[in-house]
Design goal:
The protein has a domain at 802-869. The protein is elongated, with a radius of gyration of 38 Å. The protein starts with a helix and ends in a 199-residue tail after the last strand. The chain contains 27 helices and 14 strands. The model is unreliable at 114-125, 131-136, 530-540, 811-875 and 878-1008 (pLDDT under 50). The longest helix has 35 residues, at 199-233. Strands 2-3-1-4 form a four-stranded antiparallel beta sheet, with helices on both faces. A four-stranded antiparallel beta sheet has the order 7-10-6-11, with helices on both faces. Strands 5-12 form a two-stranded parallel ribbon. The protein is mainly α. Residues 814-825, 903-918, 949-959 have a biased composition (Low complexity).
Length: 1008
């Protein structure tokens, strides 16, 4: 399947590029510009909870306008008190001006005060209203406080008119600036200072912060990723390709999300999640594809073959990786919270579209570029400076130019740092396992202090003005936070209500209704919540029944303390009402903002075991279908859980305990549960994602005939650099979002950065090879019946076919060299061409040794485009008669040479150097114990200088590999030399044996 995709993308490369570029560019701009206006700030609560039912009952009874949405905090000027006549007069006039401007007319954004019973909406009833109680009244004391410095404070509230959360936020944005101008007018400055707090302003700050931080992070991430990609690839052209995929991924995902928003509610966090996950994953996938394509070109394959092999290897792995991450994210749809499902949708869209574009558009662009993917490289820039012979640094530039010019073949990579690290790990696997596991378990320890919380002002930075006002209000007025706990009675008698309230007032954790009187009740007297202003009766239909509704309010000492709220709510719900009858609607519900948040967190935590189970099952199933092993998925799941635990431990240490808050501008406290659950799913998916890339390369090695230890070493070494680079890329994108002012985006960014860097280095490059070394061949174990299932429904090819062109193996000619002055070592492992027979297995020491009896087979050199040059026919004037040169009789004799001919490479043998010229190429593996003749032994030799008995030299034989019954193979035409001379991109021309000069380069065809 993947081979067919590779051939298709090469054949229709221009069509694919044109169609995808035009369509995504058009729809992406539309989606990016239109998505923000369609998203909503909803999905924060569990719709099936009792607290939501209580909110629906009170909203139906009172209308949404009863809520104290906006809190205006009043601080008198220096030397004045809140009870001074001029202060009261100025505040009252300001309040009247605000209501006159924003609470009247058809486009009113606020509700007029006293539209309802002022005792029920006591927070909208204020000492600054006409007819307010005097200073000695108890209600007056409720609305005033004295701070530690002796200053007095007061407040009043403004209820919003709209019943929709999203619309209230938009209305607040529209009136915020003119409202602040009225509150802070020149006339008021000498009298008082006003600050604005409340749930709507806090939520609006979060909403605006999300959109602002998304744009800021994208502006930071793209240049940062470009710099990293340039140094990873060492070239501009190769670095640009993953960035193109990343930008198009964001555009396409935004367009799809915008269409979805027309039919369903989409939370505003979907945009930042698309940018964070989509951009990072797209860069990762692009890195894997481009790196593999360049590797295939370095191995000597032409462009069509390199494209096909890239899709068959890296493309297949990307599809498996994306399916794993999508499966992990799909598990989040069991959540009852719309916020979490929206974020999961954004991440899912980013991963899915990145995989599709990496499998279609990116190979098409690679097919068009071909070897030009190496253009504008770091090596090219260095060679320019090298020609200038700069003083002092000229030698360093020359060294760097030669080093960067070397082809990164598999053999070179395996001989590098990651190969050496893998060797060290596999020598002492038990020590590596103990060290890494101990380290990660130690990082997990802070999890015991993990706390969850709902949305609050603490998610804003400490320097935010609205955050400071809300903190000040909650410190001064803990009993009037605007977030009361409500007991909603339905069809209850006075005696039943009194019985419940008497027990409720004994529950700790609530403030007294009158802070000056410690004996006052914690819950207010139940009041009639039925509105008569709109013509409603004293009965409401709740859950199919007509009921009367009465409410009682109480305030938590700390509404953001989820643990205390949970204990209080559990105690309230544990009260048994005498004569309660659910069938008749007699009973009570516990609601209010703190309870809404607690119920949402509780529902998430109750589903967490099911979520983890689904993640394990989905991951195990997908990896089994991909690899055909049961051991590997189990090992991957255990390691992913270890990575996840260490990540949660780090996040707890940082964000709950507050370490680094001064540096990164946040306050330690409970973490937002839905965002943390998203982090769990994404980190788990990415952990298995990198496992897939490592194991896929090992499987590829084994399919080529490598032993388990050889596969472990080669797979880890070949993917180590790429996986680390991919982790750094995604970490750079996450780091850009760490600049956000919102702490919930910091959760995701810091969690991803820590998980990626730990997982891609310590876990995948140390723990994985160590564990697999101990498991040995058991790593590939699965029951027979499961293997049959995997073979039937698996995910495609696991090995590369032998490459041929016109019936001739591409592995019969040497590839490009490893670099100037250095011969390319033997290629052993996945992706290297495999001959018909493979050498015996190397010793089980984890190293890859060149086989002793295997011909030195290499793929052909790459050509810019097309399948390669055609072979020419007979030379002009050829008579059809074969003229053989005389047989040499002594070592000093050489066969005659035709200066018009060109050199024909010999299968299995490398190009030779001219006399006196140092060798830049390996001359083939050393002869093994079976001799140069292979398994059949050496051919008998004739007289000295004549070669094997009865045979002509290879250049003169009419038969042999190039003759035979069908006539000789026609040689390839000569390759044109580039501007770099004989050692240029096409490599040096093959020479004859030392001392003999060039080989004869043209032979007439065999005479019939």
């Amino acid at each position: 399947m993947f081979a067919a995709i590779g051939r298709f993308t090469y054949a229709f490369r221009y069509t694919i590029i044109a169609v995808l570029f035009v369509s995504i560019a058009a729809t992406g701009v539309w989606g990016f510009l239109g998505l923000g206006a369609k998203t909503k700030m909803n999905g924060l609560y569990d719709e099936a909870s009792d607290s939501v039912a209580a909110a629906q009952v009170t909203d139906k009874a009172n209308g949404r306008e009863m809520q104290p949405d906006i809190l205006v905090l009043i601080k008198p000027a220096e030397g004045k008190k809140i009870s001074d006549a001029d202060v009261e007069k100025a505040v009252a006039k300001t309040r009247e001006d605000v209501l006159a401007k924003f609470a009247t007319g058809d486009d009113a954004k606020l509700n007029p005060v006293n539209e309802k019973d002022p005792q029920e909406s006591s927070l909208s009833y204020t000492m600054f209203a006409p007819g307010a109680p005097q200073a000695n009244d108890a209600l007056y004391k409720k609305f005033t406080r004295t701070d530690a410095d002796g200053g007095t404070w007061g407040f009043f509230t403004l209820p919003m008119k709209s019943a929709d959360d999203t619309q209230r936020g938009k209305d607040w944005v529209s009136i915020q600036q003119p409202l602040m101008e009225i509150l802070r007018s020149e006339a008021n400055k000498p009298v008082f200072e006003a600050q604005v707090a409340g749930l709507v302003p806090v939520t609006s700050e979060v909403t605006e912060g999300v959109q602002k931080d998304q744009k800021k992070a994208e502006i930071i991430a793209l240049p940062l990723v470009a710099i990293v990609l340039f140094f990873v690839y060492g070239g501009i052209v190769a670095a640009v390709l993953p960035m193109i995929i990343g930008v198009l991924t964001i555009g396409a995902a935004m367009a799809v999300a915008s269409v979805m928003a027309d039919f369903t509610d989409v939370n505003l966090f979907v945009g930042p999640i698309i940018s964070l996950i989509g951009l990072g994953i797209a860069h990762d996938y692009g890195l894997f594809m481009v790196s593999r394509f360049r590797e295939e070109l370095d191995e000597g394959y032409d462009t069509p073959t390199a494209v096909r092999r890239t899709v068959m290897t890296a493309g297949r792995t990307i599809i498996m990786s994306s399916l794993l991450i999508v499966g992990a994210l799909a598990c989040l749809y069991i959540s009852p919270l719309g916020l979490l499902t929206s974020m999961a949708t954004g991440a899912l869209l980013g991963v899915f579209i990145a995989a599709i574009l990496s499998l279609t558009l990116l190979p098409a662009m690679l097919a068009v570029l071909g070897p030009r993917v190496f253009a504008l490289s770091f090596h090219w820039f260095l060679t320019i400076f090298d020609k200038w012979n700069l003083p002092l640094i000229g030698g360093i530039i020359h060294w760097a130019a030669e080093k960067t010019g070397r082809a990164k073949t598999k053999a070179n990579i395996e001989a590098g740092m990651w190969g050496k690290v893998t060797d060290a790990v596999m020598k002492r696997p038990k020590a590596a396992i103990v060290g890494v596991v101990t380290l990660l378990l130690a990082i997990c320890i802070p999890i015991v202090g993990l706390q969850f919380g709902g949305i609050s002002q603490t998610y804003l930075p400490p320097t935010n003005e609205t955050r400071q006002a809300q903190d000040q209000f909650q410190e001064l007025f803990p009993d009037n936070t605007g977030q009361p706990v409500k007991i909603v009675f339905t069809n209850a008698s006075d005696e039943q209500i009194k019985q419940v309230l008497d027990e409720a007032n004994k529950i700790p954790g609530f403030t007294h209704s009158n802070p000056a009187d410690p004996n006052s009740a914690r819950f207010s007297a139940a009041t009639d919540a039925v509105s008569t202003a709109k013509g409603t009766t004293d009965k409401l239909e709740v859950r199919g029944q007509e009921v009367s509704v009465r409410t009682s309010n109480g305030s938590m000492q700390d509404p953001n303390d989820t643990k205390a709220v949970g204990e209080a709510v559990t105690a309230l719900r544990g009260i048994t009402m005498d004569g309660a009858d659910p069938d008749k609607g007699v009973g009570f519900l516990v609601g209010g903002m703190p309870v809404l948040q607690y119920d949402s967190i509780d529902s998430m935590l109750s589903l967490l075991p099911m979520l983890l189970l689904l993640l394990v099952v989905v991951t195990t199933l997908m990896m089994f279908l991909a690899f055909g092993s049961l051991t590997l998925p189990i090992k991957a799941v255990l390691m992913s859980l270890l990575s996840l635990g260490s990540t949660l431990g780090f996040l707890t240490w940082m964000f709950v305990d507050g370490h680094g808050g001064d540096i990164f501008n946040f306050t330690g406290g409970p973490m937002m549960a839905p965002v943390l659950v998203l982090v769990i799913a994404v980190v788990f998916g990415l952990s298995t994602d990198y496992e897939v890339f490592v194991i896929s390369r090992m499987i590829e090695e084994r399919a080529g005939g490598a032993t388990t230890n050889q596969a472990i070493r080669a797979g880890t070494a070949n993917t180590g650099r790429i996986i680390t680079a991919a982790a750094v890329l995604l970490a750079c994108v996450a780091a850009a979002f760490a600049t956000s002012d919102l702490v919930m985006l910091k959760y995701v960014s810091f969690g991803l950065m820590f998980a990626l860097l730990i997982d891609a280095t310590v876990v995948r490059m140390v723990l994985v090879p160590a564990v697999m070394k101990l498991l040995g061949d058991d790593s590939w174990w699965a029951p027979l019946w499961m293997r049959k299932i995997q073979e039937a429904v698996g995910l495609g090819e696991t090995s590369l076919p032998a490459e041929t062109r016109d019936g001739r193996p591409l592995s019969s000619v040497k590839p490009a060299t490893a670099g100037p002055g250095k011969a390319a070592p033997e290629l052993v492992g996945a992706g290297a061409p495999v001959s018909a027979t493979r050498a015996p297995a190397a010793p089980e020491d984890g190293r890859l040794h060149p086989p002793s009896n295997l011909p030195d087979v290499r793929p052909a050199r790459p050509t810019p485009v097309g399948p390669g040059p055609r072979r020419p026919g007979p030379p002009p004037g050829f008579s059809g008669r074969l003229e053989l040169p005389p047989r040499p009789s002594a070592p000093t004799q050489r066969p005659p040479q035709d200066p018009r001919s060109y050199q024909q490479p010999v299968p299995g043998r490398g190009p030779q150097q001219a006399p006196g010229q140092p060798s830049r190429h390996r001359q083939g593996p050393p002869p093994g114990p079976q001799g140069p003749g292979g398994p059949q032994g050496p051919r008998p030799s004739g007289p000295i200088g004549q070669g094997p008995s009865g045979q002509l030299p290879r250049q003169q034989r009419p038969g042999g590999p190039q003759g035979g019954p069908q006539g000789p193979r026609q040689p390839y035409p000569p390759r044109p030399q580039g501007p770099q001379g004989p050692g240029g991109p096409q490599g040096p021309r093959p020479q004859g044996p030392t001392g003999e000069g060039p080989r004869p380069q043209q032979r007439p065809p065999h005479q019939d």
